[in-house]
Amino acid sequence: MAFGRKALPPAYAAREKFLKRLDAQGVHYAREAAQPVVRIPYNGEHFRDVVFSFVFDEDGLSVGLRVFSIAKFGRSQLDDAFEFCNRMNSEFRWMRFFVDGDRELTASADAIVTADTCADVCRQLLARAVGIVDSVCKELN
């Protein structure tokens, strides 16, 4: 830490390490000033304009990945949507799928990180999540 510089809270320090990795790889993202959150818009082979949101816990030792609005279901499709989520949850180990209150397919994953592993773990989580969401969207279509 440089003299006279205020230390970042752990959640923001973890976020900054991840952002440095994204910058080095040329990945576009948006960050929220008031929260330790990073949003990465992504297009896959079988999905478009899906945002992968990383939310860093206050202690900087864990991160949640949330992927909202993967697909939208009508009321008449809800039974099939729940069955689809159950099947995907049994097929994919690293992500959980559910239908949220807006009837949208949502995915989530969580990871434990340290100051030294944060950037690597988050980048690997993003790569794995993109691949899984792409597979799920292919199956959904």
Strand and helix map with partners:
Elements: H1 10-24, E1 30-31, E2 37-42, E3 50-56, E4 62-72, H2 78-91, E5 96-99, E6 104-112, H3 118-140
Antiparallel strand pairs: 1-2, 2-3, 3-4, 4-6, 5-6
Explain briefly what this protein structure is.
By secondary structure, the protein is an alpha+beta fold.
Description:
The chain is of the alpha+beta class and 141 residues long. It has one domain: Yope Regulator, Chain: A. The protein has three helices and six strands. The protein has helices at 10-24, 78-91, 118-140, and strands spanning 30-31, 37-42, 50-56, 62-72, 96-99, 104-112. Strands 1-2-3-4-6-5 form a six-stranded antiparallel sheet. Strand 3 and strand 4 (62-72) form a beta hairpin. The chain is elongated and about 60 Å long. The mean pLDDT is 94.
Distinctive features:
141 residues; alpha+beta; Yope Regulator, Chain: A; six-stranded antiparallel beta sheet; 3 helices; 6 strands; elongated
Question: Cα distance, first to last residue?
Answer: 50 Å
What structural class results from the helix and strand content?
alpha+beta
Task: Please give the share of residues in helix.
Answer: 25-40%
**Low-confidence sequence ranges:** none
CATH level-1 class: Alpha Beta
Largest pleated sheet: 6 strands, antiparallel
Mean pLDDT: 94
Q: How are strands sequenced across the largest beta sheet?
A: 1-2-3-4-6-5
Number of helices: 3
Portion of residues in beta strands equals 25-35%
Domain count, please report it: 1
Name the quaternary structure: single chain
* CATH fold node name: Yope Regulator, Chain: A
In angstroms, what is the radius of gyration?
Answer: 16 Å
* CATH architecture tag: 2-Layer Sandwich
Number of strands: 6
Using the alpha-carbon principal axes, give the shape: elongated
- Following the backbone from N to C, one meets helices and strands in this order, namely HEEEEHEEH
